[in-house]
Task: structure prediction
Amino acid sequence: MIIKYLRIAKVEFEKTKEYFLNFIGQIIYLPMQFLLIYFLWKFVYSYNSQIGNYSFNDMIEYYLILTIVQSAIMPVGIITYEEWNDINQGNLNLYLSKPLFYPFYLCYRKIVLFLWNIIFGILFLIFANITILPWLKITLYIYNISLFILSSFLGFMIMFNLFFIVGTLTFWVENVLTLRDNVWNMIKIFSGEILPIAIFPSFIKKISVILPFQYIYYTPISVLQGKLTNEQLLDSIGFQIFWVIFMSIISLIMWKKGSVNYTSQGG
Amino acid sequence: MIKVSCVSKTYKVPKKTYKRSLKNIIIKPYTEVYAVNNISFNIEEGEIVGFVGLNGAGKTTTIKMLSGILTPTNGEITVLGYIPYKERREYTKKISVLMGQRSILFYDIPVIESLKFYKDVYELDNNEFKDRLDYLSGKLNLSSLLHIPVRKLSLGQRMKCEIVASILHNPKVIFLDEPTLGLDIISKQEILEFFRYLNQNFKTTIFLTTHDISDIDRFCKRIIIIDKGKIIYDGDINTIKERDKFKIVEITHTNSFDANNLITCNEYNLISKEEYKSKIRVKKDKLNEFIDFVLHENDILDININTISLEDILNGIYERSEHD
Result:
């Protein structure tokens, strides 16, 4: 059964081959993105030597890793739109009339991009660590890289489920894109995508503990930066697993209920 | 093989006028309309059935319920012993759904990659896939297209590839929803002939909806007509056409001629009347008498004798249904 979903990886790879120029664009995206962040924080740190418990080096490290995690997780952001479009345009018919499970199909397509981008990102990190940015001193052992990949994957699954749940609401509410935009903003604030959560005021830190968002970006970055004690590491990954299971159950229940409600518009 | 019993499907449509209140702002009031209303029919193995109706009559809703995409509001459907919407995963391995206006191929990459994807979706082994692909691509003459990206194919070529992807798994039942939409006459002919071949050689049951009445006329022995969600005819296509009983006589005449003068008895019916042309339906056993009569009219310039078209018959049925 799994083979058909693995085949999706091949299809995505073939698409990349068809648009080779786009692929080259993706390769140079990471260094370009990082360069912008570097100059921005260089300017900010010219007035302060320390922000919260983040030195300039810590901050650059944070955003370097964030850029990599973002490139792997971000493709999931389009899930709500794809689902909304498939339900409203009636393209869902094609998946429902085949022995395919649509939520898995969507998820596997994005997993392929996740693996592709995280592997490329780690290679870039290793290259950067030993060549142009040796002063960053990110310790890269197989152990912490493996934990980083695991934590990033769990972050990916949390984000997938969030956007999938919003997309599934299309079965009941015709336009979910505004809600999607609000979820985007929540993610931006509480996931560590704009700033590390550790430098936020304490009330935001308290709120973010009970929300799933910080486990998307902040946790995987902290894992690789070595900012967590063993106990915190276990707790964080444990919470990530909890959120993935909890949200996957919600996703599947909503999908089951919603697909019965499906009215297949558009002929 | 296909059993449809007292099936209805309703949709929620927002009410056009309603009392303004907080409750109604939060949850908009709606009414339920029937897309399909209490329909029943059975289809045996190896039948080709044409499912005909005007836009919004309930054709596509029915085909979607039969293929497991939609859940009926009331009634029971079984196809090949499965309840489509409940046993979707197993059921969809045995059937195929081809929708003329939607593509199941990956747009950006060569056709063969999509076919390999569907090989895995339908869990075919490599030998099975190779045999089936050789056979189908030979039959539809598309071996040279397999390595071309889908976006570079013409509509006719793409449709043939869609067919191969849809029937790789040798389905027992094929649901065709407007499969010839937008195709030229040659491609349309080739595709319908191919489905006829499958039906004759593999006893594949085919359920076809189309706007193109000529497709139904050439392809189907049985026709089901649906109008406003209700079945108004289910039976042999020749019976409905009364092909053996009547002929259509098309007369070209001068401007001053009044075609009503030709209607001298109950066996002649004036169907349409234009400035220079009139159509008259004549009982077949009265045809000689009628032609003899017409030939003596000086204002008549030309005569054509045709079999009644299915389109004319359907128009008549829809008009009668409208009055009822």
Q: What stands out?
A: Chain B has a mean pLDDT of 85. The interface with chain A takes residues 11-12, 60-61, 64, 67-71, 85, 88-90, 92-93, 95, 97, 99, 101-102, 104, 106, 108-110, 113-114, 116-118, 120-123, 149 of chain B (CB under 8 Å). Chain B has eleven helices and 13 strands.
